[in-house]
Specification:
The complex is a heterodimer of chains A (479) and B (285). With 479 residues, chain A is mainly alpha-helical. Chain A has 18 helices and no strands. Chain A has one domain (42-139, 149-434): Formate dehydrogenase/DMSO reductase fold. Helices cover 69% and strands 0% of the residues of chain A. Chain A is globular, with a radius of gyration of 25 Å. In chain A, 44% of the residues are buried. Chain B starts with a helix and ends in an 8-residue tail after the last strand. Classes of the chains: A mainly alpha (479), B alpha+beta (285). Chain B: This is Molybdopterin-containing oxidoreductase family iron-sulfur binding subunit. Chain B: It holds the Pfam family Fer4_7. Chain B: Residues 31-62 form the 4Fe-4S ferredoxin-type domain.
Amino acid sequence: MSDPVHVKDINEDIAWAKINADVLRSMKNPRLGYWIAIAVSIAALSVGVAGEVYQYNVGMGPAGLNTSHMWDLYISSFVFWIGMSHSGTLLSAILHIVHADWRKPIYRFAEAMTTFSLLTAGLFPILHLGRVWNMHWVVPYFSDRGIWPNFTSPLMWDAFAITTYLISSALFLFVGMIPDLAICRDNAASGWRLRLYTFLALGWRGDDRQWRNFRVTYLVIACFLIPLAVSVHSIVAMDFSMSIMPGWHVTTFPPYFVAGALYSGCAAIISLFLLLRYLMKFEEYMTFPILDKVCKLTFVIAMVWSYLNLIEFASVWYGHDIPAKEVLIAKASGPYSPFFWGMIAFGMVLPFSLLSKKIRRSLLLLFVISLLLNTGMWLERWMIVTPTLSLGFHPFAWNTMWPGWVEWGIELGSFGWFGLLFLIFVKVFPSVSMYEVKEMVYHRKHVVFDDVEAEIAKLYPIVDPKARGAAQTPDLGRP
Amino acid sequence: MSSLFGNFFANWDRYRKSIEDPGYRDYENMWAMAIDLGSCIGCNACSTACYAENNLATVGEDRFLARQSMGWMRVERYWDEPSLGASDPDSQERGGSFLPMMCQQCNAAPCEPVCPVGATYNNEGGLNAQIYNRCIGSRYCANNCPYRVRYFNFYSYDKDAWPAPLNRQLNPDISVRDKGVMEKCTFCIQRIRAAKDDAAREGRALRDGDVTTACQQTCPTQAIVFGDLQDPESRVRKAWDAHQVRLGTTEQKKTNPALRGYRVFEELNTESCVIYLERVRDTDV
């Protein structure tokens, strides 16, 4: 292991029973670190819940909002968490379709991250409502009063997009897990785990017909999810770009947001990769070469995002829309400039460090970098929301604001909520896909990669039903 | 299905109707205002009257300084600073300029299409109406308002804004809004409604001057003119005509550049119904 980056993705001689045993072991006997993480998450969540209870009773005042800044951390966090959810789709659906099999040991937790960050993101538009108790009014349910929501509002589109994406990605996560749930079922002795896995495994026996249906279903959901992921974050971008506010009214926002989403998601994957690798002892599956590939992917997406970011500045600058230009100048030189330049430093400059092989091999450094990248992306979202509202068209209303304790508390609570869900997930469900790792090991050992398509065709033959029927019909020798 | 799309396209250009356009007559009235900044002395009486008429909460000093005040009408004060082109060092001596800013009752209002529940809409009087009961407080409308004239109830004020005897002066014709509701200037819609009811009871059409807004009523210099733009004889329509300000355009074509009327942020195509008559100083003449 002198040069860990250039060894194979995974050890080809790893026994299948060992894979099962390792993953199943990770679901049992939480270590001290796990309990500490749970405690920290619950503490953070409690702060958030306390803030929300207070806000529910008192009103939005303590959040620090004012007449110019009607949106702040809630909406920027909403965009941030939606963004986090995109990497799971990227990693599992897109790489699944292009047959990049290095994703196999790490896609499960990325998908779980997608689902849970969506659950977190979905909370924010609800929590930020002035009258939370009426949130169901954005749902187009049939009522005697014949009152419908306003379909021209991007917030309405958000409600549809997030719900669809949440359901689809939860389904994707669940369907991809069925063979593994069957393994869990077969290894569970008794109790709630046996009942849960028996229910969720849907009678999986692993026969050919089940595998064939499974492959088709999984592929269909993957194909469905990719355009959906693009649409979700485009719609979130439209919350801003559909408005007339200078600084928001930018046509490049949708692709810019999608790129930013993939970026922050990839950075989060690196963080969670390293955490799981350490906490769950997944060194044999979450290997250096895979980490290396994720880092390169992150770098590429960071460059796409940086490019789109510069395009946004350029289009505002050369478009010479005076109020929008003033917002841009104020971002770079006004009271929020430290955060703006922090975003540039962490989001656009720091990813260049991923070009260094040494850094890509240094776990601790990489962990810190991935957290900083996400800090940069969090700042990016905040810099979209707040400085624009500080300025706007009407100079009389120009001012600045700083979020109040309730907003910071709920912000902290969202990380606790996400952490708690994720921590529970990794102990209840297999966070490394057992059957796909086995496939990967098999492929690496037996499949000659010169002709991948032929090998795949051999492994998963497309059987023409007519031909199958003809073969089953006995040949009676008639003319 | 065809009717669905038919309605959609039929209503498509409902906005951007000019007075000359026959389709403009879809409105029962077109309530509008003309504010003469030459007369405005910045006394804030209009704002105070608005507080009394519309049950606006007085939020207290701390919340006011946190910019969470509820005044639907604010008198903005501007100084001619030397850095802004006025080289006269005595410009401070000449006093400030005042701009009473309230909801501009846009006909193509940026706040309307973004409300997720349709709590704000253009009503038959050309007003930008707000349904308090329907509002869920997403505050998108306030963010999209270029004039920043939408006010949000950050707290429940019904307990502390009107201590014991003061609650007797609350206007019974209008609700007291609770926390989480967006509110704004309505051109005193309760007075419009009352005047319409009176006219209907007496079996006559609404006359110019039947409706007076609270701010107009209180203005000591009568800087505010309010009325129906569809009535060619109304004072507000005459003021608009005299200054050659038209609805349904993003750029006024005036024959005489000395005419003082303008609308704020006309280039945004919000079709606002409030015109201001520019202040003329004696030194300018």
